[in-house]
Amino acid sequence: xxxxxxxxxxxxxxxxxxxxxxxxxxxxxxxxxxxxxxxxxxxxxxxxxxxxxx
Length: 54
Prior knowledge:
Layout: H1 23-29, H2 37-53
């Protein structure tokens, strides 16, 4: 159902910027992501759209 987003200022201790880094998990677990960021973002957007239709 429709909603109105309310934007508020954050706390002074909030993290202002995030820079995720998977290099540690790659090294420790010999892991590689299977989906790049853009593909993953498109999948999430499509998932939300499908959920809204229900």
